[in-house]
């Protein structure tokens, strides 16, 4: 009853571990059976290996965290060679999260992933922690349109475009991505944020800015998911601060086909299981046979 | 499942020195010296757990020695016997304690916390302890039975040498050095040891989120590239971290 | 030592009670001596009396609140007649917060305030809870430019433009307002957000959306204040989740001349006094003689 | 300063019926019947205080009777004797208790909370109590000495009339009706009373933030336009709210 389908791919339930918070699943599989998840979004991959950012990488805010990891990852080839075979042993859907600084980088990444055993590509046009231009893709709709169109020309896997909440206009952004051929949309990535060490009189992060995630952003993320779901007719995967099954249901009612859980994994490592169980109990008690009955049923003013 | 996330009962939680608390919980994992747990003693007041090293394991009890620094350790310090907290671990690779010969354990401040359990496990070695403190000295008496000599320094000279522990540490005498404390002190020790080719292991601190190696927020640069303090560490070869990174 | 000056107006300290959370000061004066504040921003005023929104008006989120008051206010004339004389008894700077749905409404409002005894006008181009067009002023820089230019043509009081964090581009927005002649900028207003009642399967708010404020938004608000402060050379007043004196210092170091405290007043009614005292102690312990020594000293990448 | 924000000590906090708690704090303000306080028993776990009516004031102690509904009241229910909570108040205009003649007090569920103190203050009136509950009946016994008769209804018929209190209420007998409970019940009572021109006062509930009339989130529509429940209420003329608004 929990199963949902995303661009023709069947998920056993709507709960996906969010990119960057779950590695490649291996570590969490030491805590619980990750095959129980609807899916896993890999750590953000780039064409070449990246060491990520210097300095402090995480800082706690009220009901949220700020991170500045900067896309540390082994590179796509190494991922396909070393990590993917291990991931494939889990019985869950694999979303390869792909980041990049230039269109060419994205395209080369897509080519490599085309022939791999992943299920879907989550195209991260929104990483706020990479300086070299990467940011603009997620901000300006027309630039996003270019990337997504080019990617779609060559992609052999379904493309789910992951939007940044820092986009100038999230609705327009989603419409442009849709027009460019995106198979699905996921949102939101982290919010551009900042913290200052008042004694050192310096930004806490070497990069000045960092990405805010966690419960703090939920009300804004939910609003964006609602707006985007109403604007496009491709599936939307919602995230941003989801910590309880109630949060997950809110996102589904707002229009999300499935949800991702990121920061909450740090609160309780097997929180995804609690969320899955909670969704199930809710469905039983509310006599919901299939999540499509409540998906996007919220209609406001 | 290698790591357990559990609610456990507090057996005791008392201030043992100014601002330093000892927390004892009912838990019978077989943690290794130098490993740590992510501790949570709150619901949604704070988001992340706090990494704290295993201070001792005995008779189904695990203890932690911690200094109150910010919000999390402050909340921990208020929790009373019988209260339940969440623990997640044990995490990381600890110290190799299967060693012989003369071992120096060098600590700064609360860096002494993991060394109690570590020293007790160094059964076949002859151990000298070099412990530096800001002002108040703690834990040294409890360690007497397990060590050959202890050398103490305090910043203000209240007890022992007035100054830094690095002032009185002599790297040439030891087959191995284990070190935990402020980075500036650990780096100094590593540099001192390199001159005499004495191997040093250091326990690193980084802010953490997942605690198990998945989120890459706790990275430490080493000779072999980025390592995760939570999973690949917290114990590393001192040279790899401070000299060849 | 705490005094700051804003467009030639002297504030005895940099802490201003934020619009909409403090009424006209009268009620809080029953809790503490509001003359101790640097200033008070009035409840948002409109040309004509407004009854505000129907349905639930406040809802708690993690470390934040969502509100949908909808600019309930007695109208400018009634304000000037009834509320202002009472406010004038307090020895503090009065910011008349002015909202509107059309340019004409703003202009008529300005005309009335021109001849009143207020010190400064906080031009709220960003109220997210008013439907009729009011929203766009705060979203699109060029529309904001029009409003502010027209307002400045006739205004006899200094105009502080209050920006919305929902602006498409907060930096561009601030630059346009500056160009249009704004005397100061304040930011941020509340974030457009949403909550869903999963049992009723309806938005919690009648208007679907509501404005998120409080500690949850602080890291994003701080980032925006930092970016705007670097972009414009008029004074910036920062707000968004300020709850402690440390928060206030962060905003000042990010570039704010003064700060506003909104939601935190609901945590502890005299929290502004704690913040003022904390700033003072910090200055003493860090040997800061005047806040200008630390204002905007943060310089990141 | 009219309203005080204070940290006060809990004298007791006990479950008096299923999910219903009585909290007694050390506080000697002269609160009036029908007034309320904003209570906080947390730091940053929740942002807003929770409005709770004064249940009784006696010998320097103020008590509250509350039902556990959500997070805030849940936290309140866990607090123990000696713990300190923040109270802000007393707020609002209460019931006018300087009345004579026959008075009916009509309550639904926890709406009975403010009526204990109110009834005790109605010294010159002859009082009948009509109290509806879902299932369990509470507080009625404590009120015996202060009232003439009591009529009880429970939804499931466990005690008293099976059904709603509005089924057995007779508006024509009274000079005044004071009412606190769910809006649907209060509206019904108001409509019943209008037919007999019996004046009714109702105590309204709204989510609140400031509690003192500054933020306008607790608005209630009345005959005379929007009123603030926290400051202009919580007690209003029933007709003004339910019939003529
Ligand atoms: C592997 C490891 C073992 C540790 N063992 C001990 C121990 O046995 N005893 C002890 O007293 N301390 C130990 N620490 C340090 C301890 O984790 C921090 O003092 C603690 O997290 C501070 O939390 P706070 O909420 O009180 O401080 P805050 O400054 O309010 O914490 C804010 C955030 O920063 C993080 N943080 C702050 N300081 C540190 C730090 N030095 N290291 C890691 N994260 C930090 C916190 O975890 C939290 O996420 C250890 C750290 C690590 C990494
Ligand atoms: C003037 C007044 C007097 C009251 N007196 C009592 C009393 O004596 N005993 C008692 O048990 N209850 C009383 N209530 C209701 C009580 O305030 C709510 O039950 C309580 O706030 C719920 O908080 P929560 O965190 O447990 O629930 P949650 O639903 O988690 O609360 C979420 C938010 O909604 C608000 N809220 C939820 N329900 C209500 C409600 N019915 N009224 C106002 N705010 C609400 C909370 O204050 C909070 O801000 C009174 C309400 C008002 C307005
Ligand atoms: C430590 C950390 C690392 C992240 N890394 C990535 C990443 O590599 N790629 C990506 O698309 N999103 C990344 N994110 C964003 C999350 O996937 C998610 O979009 C965001 O955190 C909001 O969801 P949450 O509030 O549930 O965490 C990261 C988030 C965190 C906290
Ligand atoms: C209940 C409430 C009412 C508000 N009304 C107004 C208003 O009338 N005009 C306005 O410019 N801002 C209004 N605001 C926004 C605040 O002034 C402030 O910009 C925002 O809340 C962010 O600051 P904070 O996090 O300190 O509350 C209101 C905020 C709240 C919570
Ligand atoms: S804390 Fe997540 S990788 Fe170390
Ligand atoms: S709660 Fe603020 S006006 Fe009533």
TrEMBL record, chains A, C:
Subcellular location: Cytoplasm
Cytoplasm recorded as keyword: yes
Cofactor: FMN
CDD domains: DHOD_1B_like (cd04740)
Positions of substrate binding: 43, 67-71, 124, 189-190
Residues annotated as binding FMN: 19, 43-44, 97, 124, 162, 188, 214, 240-241, 262-263
First-level EC class: oxidoreductase
One biological process term in Gene Ontology: 'de novo' UMP biosynthetic process
Pfam family, one: DHO_dh
Single GO cellular component term: cytoplasm
Substrates-to-products reaction catalysed: (S)-dihydroorotate + A = orotate + AH2; (S)-dihydroorotate + NAD(+) = orotate + NADH + H(+)
Location of the active site: 127
GO MF annotations, alphabetized: dihydroorotate dehydrogenase (NAD+) activity
Co-factor binding details: Binds 1 FMN per subunit.
Gene3D superfamilies in the record: Aldolase class I
Enzyme Commission designation: 1.3.-.-
Keywords: Cytoplasm, Flavoprotein, FMN, NAD, Oxidoreductase, Pyrimidine biosynthesis
The protein's annotated pathway: Pyrimidine metabolism; UMP biosynthesis via de novo pathway; orotate from (S)-dihydroorotate (NAD(+) route): step 1/1
Job description of the protein: Catalyzes the conversion of dihydroorotate to orotate with NAD(+) as electron acceptor.
Family indicated by similarity: Belongs to the dihydroorotate dehydrogenase family. Type 1 subfamily.
UniProt xrefs under HAMAP family: DHO_dh_type1
Protein name: Dihydroorotate dehydrogenase
Organism: Fervidicella metallireducens AeB
UniProtKB/TrEMBL annotation, chains B, D:
Pathway: Pyrimidine metabolism; UMP biosynthesis via de novo pathway; orotate from (S)-dihydroorotate (NAD(+) route): step 1/1
Cofactor binding annotation: Binds 1 [2Fe-2S] cluster per subunit.
Biological process terms in GO annotation: 'de novo' UMP biosynthetic process
Membrane-crossing segments per the record: none
Named cofactor requirement(s): [2Fe-2S] cluster; FAD
GO molecular function: 2 iron, 2 sulfur cluster binding; electron transfer activity; flavin adenine dinucleotide binding; metal ion binding; oxidoreductase activity
InterPro entries: Cyt_c3_hydrogenase_gsu, Dihydroorotate_DH_ele_sf, Dihydroorotate_DH_Fe-S-bd, Dihydroorotate_DHASE_ETsu, FAD-bd_FR_type, FNR_nucleotide-bd, PyrK_electron_transfer, Riboflavin_synthase-like_b-brl
NCBIfam families: PRK00054.1-3
Assembly description: Heterotetramer of 2 PyrK and 2 PyrD type B subunits.
Protein name: Dihydroorotate dehydrogenase B (NAD(+)), electron transfer subunit
Provenance organism: Fervidicella metallireducens AeB
